[in-house]
Amino acid sequence: MSMHIPEGYGTVPPYFIVADAERFVDFLEEVFDAKEISRAEMNGRIANVHIRIGTSTFMISDGSEEGLGTMKGAYYIVRGGCRQDLPIGLEAANRRRGHGRAVTWSR
Question: Please, what are the domains in the chain?
Answer without folding.
Answer: 15-64+73-97 (3.30.720.120)
